[in-house]
Amino acid sequence: MSETTEQTHRGNTIGFWFFKTFLRFGGLWTAYMLLSGVTLHYWLFDRKAVKSAAAYLKRRFPLNSKVLIRFKVYKLFFSQGKQLIDRIAYISGLVEFDFDFLGQDMLDKVTAEGKGFILLTAHAGNWQLSMTKLNRFNKKIFLVLRSENNKAVKKALNINEESKIFGIISPEEHLGGIVPVVKELNNGNIVSYMGDRPYGFESVEVDFMGSKANFPYGAFAIAAATKVPIVTALASKTGFKSYKVDFTNIIKPEYKGRKNKKNQLSEWVQEYADILNNFFEEYPYQCFLFHDVWEIK
Amino acid sequence: MPEKQNLEEIRQQLKEELIENLSLEDIEPKDIKNDEILFGDDGLGLDSLDAVEIVVFLQRIWGIEIKDMEQGREILVTVDTMANHIYSNA
Question: Which of residues 154-173 of A touch B (CB under 8 A)?
Fold first, then answer.
């Protein structure tokens, strides 16, 4: 159910067609009903997805028994499925949603400075929906994505080659795609990174839900070098047809001296991990990491 | 940008900037060879995050903007390739 490498292949064209048809003729409720059966299938038979979901749930609910965690895996899968359906419904224009947009004034200030900014997202809530709320700034958003994730995200955000809103930068290109990243930030555009996946960049250990976890620091190093802020994007489902899109957490990495850069980077990454931790405490079933970030390599 | 420097002066300044901006410890300019590969396991062993600093200081100090990935692939190889580009664009 998640959007990691293997799971990208789980949703297929026929599946999307079924959900879209249910949405068109029966609305969200009927699509959710179809989802409950699909979720059951993954819950029963997709061991890999269950294991990766349990890695998070065991830390989020440390006192829960294995059986209870197993049931909560279903709830988490169902929650992610609902957000996927919401996304299809919203992007296709089939359902209207209410958005509570936090941090608009702060974003206005950031964009008024002329330079671009880094948009830091994570597998938390409906991060793709938060992107659709940035249209009004007339800035192109470049998503730094591995080619294996391209297809799923392009589909989710309706991105095509002619898109004036979105562009893709591959971190598999020369030097992690640094040249176009710096260029687009200088051009005043938005470059979006996933803050919970290294994608070729090195990571640091941070405290996350009571254990040490690996988080990448590439976005912070780029922000510090190019002197642009990092805007964190969090989109939480708060009701049947309502979302809260929060851009209020802005980090401004600035090196204090040239020594111990990695320590300084660690502090900013920890700040971000704390933001995510708080989000998952408030919305425990909107954590779609599906990747064992606690597995220290 | 300073008055037109010769290639050797540019190489020397680039090495000093690399050491300063990338906080390279226990390395002096004379330790960096002109044709030493900057990135990867061979040569100087710099990584993509060091590349960010280089792209930024090339622009800030030398006024050099790397336009695309292809140009980056040609310029960001050794001190020599960077110096040659700076010299011919000064």
Answer: 173
Asked, for residue B1, whether it belongs to a domain, the answer is no
Residue B28 one-letter amino acid: E
Number of domains in chain B: 1
* Residue B26 touches partner A, C-beta closer than 8 Å: no
Res. A158: pLDDT tops 80: no
Domains of chain A: 6-91 (no CATH), 98-286 (3.40.1010.10)
pLDDT grade, residue A1 (50/70/90)?
A: very low
Residue A199 burial (CB count, 10 A): 19
Range of the domain at B29: 7-89
The neighbour count for residue A271, using CB atoms within 10 Å, is 16
**Hey, is A207 helix, strand or coil?**
strand
Q: Provide ipTM, 2 decimals.
A: 0.80
Whether A179 and B71 lie within 8 Å, measured CB to CB: yes
pLDDT computed for residue A27 by the predictor: 92
Q: Decide if B2 is inside a domain.
A: no
The mean pLDDT of A92-103, rounded to a whole number, is 92
Handedness of CA A30, A32, A36, A39 (dihedral sign): positive
Residue A169 in contact with residue A216, Cβ under 8 Å?
Answer: no
CA distance A139 to chain B (A): 19
CATH number at residue B21: 1.10.1200.10
Residue A83 has pLDDT above 90, yes or no: yes
Q: Helix (H, G, I), strand (E, B), or coil: what is residue A289?
A: coil
In DSSP terms, A123 is beta-bridged to none
Query: Does residue A255 surpass a pLDDT of 70?
Result: yes
Cα A264 versus chain centre, distance: 24
CB neighbourhood size of B79 (10 A):
21
Q: Quick check: A177 contacting B, CB < 8 Å?
A: yes
